[in-house]
Amino acid sequence: MIAIIAAQHNPNQNHLLAALPPEIVARLCEHLELISMPLGDVLYESSGPLQHVYFPTTAIVSLHYVMENGASTEIAGVGNEGVVGIAVFMGGNTTPSLATVQTAGYAYRLKKRWMLEEFNRAGGRRLGAVQNLLLRYTQALMTQISQTAVCNRHHSIEQQLCRWLLLTLDRLPSNELTMTQELIASMLGVRREGITEAAGNLQRASLISYRRGHITVLERSGLESRTCECYHVVKKEFHRLLCAVGNR
């Protein structure tokens, strides 16, 4: 069974790994471990030491900040475009955020030792290929985090919901999401009633269909017309920074 599952997955399903030169991917593949990520699985706790980095392929991971009273809000999401655990190669080794699986799926796990060895591999005064790529990804992730803060402060719940749906769709192979309104409200840090009203507006406009924790996007262009500029800022920055690596 394990062999069958492994045959259905490839490291190149993660966009960061796919952007690396083949010889580096071949070197990393000796240490990459394909793992299942069940919904709600905790990859690392707030302020806990990080022992691995994770390259999602079909899973989506949510990065949360948890308040002292237990309330939490998503500050960023990571799917097949990125890597979870940037504190490993940024030198901090711990982070105040909490990483949990938002959408079940698979990822490749890499031990801290091998990540640091590859990250620090450079030639002369030039940045190594892995270092260059991951620093650019980190800048793009910082853009997502800062834009999320701006969006939560200045835009309507409906605009925030559209942004969140679009960013999630970008990481999935289909237009269907398994997600309850309660969980979305927790992600966005708003009341469930606000999500219910916003989702109802989108459903009446025939942009989405919602039933028993399943959301189907019927008209993506309609969501894009209703979202705020935050979605486009984040998407443009990821494209600019990560495509620049391949065009060097």
UniProtKB/TrEMBL annotation:
Domain Cyclic nucleotide-binding: residue ranges: 16-134
Cited SUPFAM superfamilies: cAMP-binding domain-like, Winged helix' DNA-binding domain
Coiled coil feature spans: none
CDD domains xrefs: CAP_ED
Cited SMART domains: cNMP
Residues passing through the membrane, by range: none
Family annotation (InterPro entries): cNMP-bd_dom (IPR000595), cNMP-bd_dom_sf (IPR018490), Env_Response_Regulators (IPR050397), HTH_CRP (IPR012318), RmlC-like_jellyroll (IPR014710), WH-like_DNA-bd_sf (IPR036388), WH_DNA-bd_sf (IPR036390)
Domain of life according to the entry: Bacteria
GO CC list: cytosol
Matching Gene3D superfamilies: Jelly Rolls, Winged helix-like DNA-binding domain superfamily/Winged helix DNA-binding domain
UniProtKB keywords: DNA-binding, Transcription, Transcription regulation
UniProt GO molecular function: DNA binding; DNA-binding transcription factor activity
PANTHER family: CRP FAMILY TRANSCRIPTIONAL REGULATORY PROTEIN (PTHR24567), HTH-TYPE TRANSCRIPTIONAL REGULATOR ARCR (PTHR24567:SF74)
Name recorded for this polypeptide: Transcriptional regulator, Crp/Fnr family
Organism: Crenothrix polyspora
